[in-house]
Amino acid sequence: MAIAWSFRDVTIQLSCLVLTCLVVSCHTVRYQPTWESLDTRPLPDWYDEAKFGIFIHWGVFSVPSYVSEWFWWDWQGAREKKAVHFMQENYPPGFTYADFASQFKAEFFNATQWAQLFHEAGARYIVFVSKHVEGFTNWPSKYSWNWNSLDVGPKRDLVGELASAIRNNTDIRFGLYHCLYEWFNPLFLQDKANNFTTQNFVNAKTMPELYELVNTYRPDIIWSDGPTEADDLYWKSKDFIAWLYNDSPVRDTVVINDRWGLGDACYHGGFYTCTDRYNPGYLVEHKWENAMSVDRKSWGYRRDTNINDVLTIEQLITQLITTVSTNGNLLMNVGPGSDGVIKPIYQERLLQVGSWLKVNGEAIYGSRPWTYQNDTITEGVWYTQNNKTQPAVIYAHLLFWPRTNLTLGAPVPSVKTTVTLIGYAGSAFQWSTHTTPGLQIVVPNIHMSDMPCQWAWVLKLTDILN
Q1: 96 and 42 in one domain?
Q2: Do 165 and 295 reside in the same domain of the chain?
Q3: Neighbour-count burial for 240-265, b at 16+ CB within 10 Å, e otherwise
Q4: Residue 429: which domain range?
Q5: 138 Rama sector, left if φ>0, alpha if ψ -120 to 50, beta otherwise
Q6: Are residues 203 and 311 part of one domain?
Q7: Cis previous bond, 452, omega within 30
Q8: Which of 18, 234, 252, 331 might form a disulfide with 230, Cβ 3.0–4.6 angstroms?
Q9: For residue 205, what pLDDT is reported?
Q10: Considering 363, 396, 419, which residue would you say is the last residue of a domain?
């Protein structure tokens, strides 16, 4: 059959070809394995919008659940008296750290229940420890024979179960933590003895694991850790990140942190973590994350935790507000027990944060730092803004409830300005600028049963001139 082509047909075909080329070109930007190139890659929007994530530290260290997740090092590396005495008093001679693995049973681990808890907590992403410095992998890695969660202990793919539960039951993004090095791995110790001029550990363990994790579970976050001795050339980090950005199955959505080699933290990567529990209290222009733990002394579960070691809900919400106000995300850690149960005190804290976010989430999710991070007159007031509207909506986060009228020095009101309390069903608050410097807000007497939340209240300011 003869085919007749019209000028219109040719035009349409050429237009489609041009459009296809434009689309393809968006996916053919090639990042080179240098920080000069890798650091130009835009951070995917979802991460900055999310603001709040949950960190989960879980592994063989959850069995002794004493001192911290660094128990093996405390016991046989640093030989700290507390850990050594604990083992002498409670375990027979000849007991090794590897013997703990069979006791890591995870018998009550229910990934769906975890996913629901994280959803109720208001988390927009999670970061699950796939492997800590002990080297035990929470997935059936081909590169960790008999030292993984399928071969010994739980006899389950813990990473896979949680990934499926998160994706099938929530809209939470799934991320993975992975430690580059391992305390007592002979290959690593040999590379270290060679002053890191050899890369046997990296070639046989670290990099194969990372590629395996990404190709198998497709995480939206790779949270790297542990590069305290060797630089990123030894770890081959930049080669991996270039693959991650160019060719991996998550190249369009994945975000990474800054711990890829000695000297990289706070200088290179998608978002900065700088140090554990990093919260500078002032605006940091580059996107950053405050990774902190509900237990102020440990990331892993400790059986001897004292209630005073657990941060209060007021302290946690303060961390969230001050972090988001200064351009950070909060990554709040809990450590489950070896049985797979997130203990009630940590469940309570997560649910309390979630209840606060249900009321005040509009001032957190998708917000941006404002011109001022905290108030110029009144302490304990922090700001965020929604700049997707014109003019922007300003949120004043009150870490205290005012005993009398409230004075705010940072906002400059217009004649159209309104002041409302988020979640409060009553009328807008009255305000003036006539008596003393600053915005004078008349705080009404509100019955406790009408208060929208129990901790930290948010005023919504509209039509602010600055």
Answers
A1: yes
A2: yes
A3: bbbbbbbebebbebbbbbbbbbbebb
A4: 381-464
A5: alpha
A6: yes
A7: no
A8: 234
A9: 98
A10: 363
Residues 54 and 331: their CA atoms lie apart, in Å, by 5
Amino acid at position 243, single letter: W
Same domain, 344 and 421: no
Least Cα distance to 126 among 58, 193, 53 occurs for 53
Q: Out of 292-306, 406-420, 436-450, which region has the weakest mean confidence (pLDDT)?
A: 436-450
CA distance 208 to 143: 7
Tokens of 364: 């957190």
pLDDT value at residue 353: 98
3-state helix, strand, coil in the chain (%, to 5): 35, 20, 50
Q: How confident is the model at residue 391 (pLDDT cuts 50, 70, 90)?
A: confident
In tens, the pLDDT along 27-86 reads: 578 999 999 999 999 999 999 999 999 999 999 999 999 999 999 999 999 999 999 999
How far is it, in rounded angstroms, from Cα 250 to Cα 221? 9
Q: Which residues pair with 84 in a beta bridge?
A: none
**pTM over cut 0.85:** yes
Mind listing the pLDDT tens digit for each residue in 210-260?
A: 999 999 999 999 999 998 889 999 999 999 999 999 999 999 999 999 999
Cα distances from 114 to residues 5, 123, 133, 423, in angstroms, run 60, 12, 24, 28
Indicate whether 359 and 408 sit together in one domain.
no
| CA–CA gap between residue 418 and residue 459 (Å, rounded) | 10
How much is the pLDDT for 27?
Answer: 55
Spatial separation of the C-alpha atoms in residues 332 and 351, rounded to whole Å: 13
Residue 133 identity (one-letter amino acid): V
Q: Quick check: 206 and 181 in contact, CB under 8 A?
A: yes
Strands in 92-140 per DSSP E: 125-131
Number of domains in the chain: 2
CA 18, CA 100: separation in Å to the nearest integer? 61
Rounded CA-CA distance 237/231 in Å is 9
